[in-house]
Protein: Transposase
Organism: Petrotoga miotherma DSM 10691
Amino acid sequence: MNVVRDKPVNGDFEKRIKHLLEYISKQPKNQKLTKRRIYELICEEGYKGSYSSFTYQARKIEEKLGINQKEG
């Protein structure tokens, strides 16, 4: 019997996080945003997850995309 589970908090924001990470990875080093600032931006857009949930998701996306972004 399959149990239907709610999407994790990041589910609705996964595409937005991916888009931001892709965009920021192409910016000059001095114009890149930190993960903390990206987190603040998506919270303003309605994200309800914790910072650690966000960074976990961001790391998974960066790994898939081959992005090596470090926090500033």
Notes: The mean pLDDT is 84.
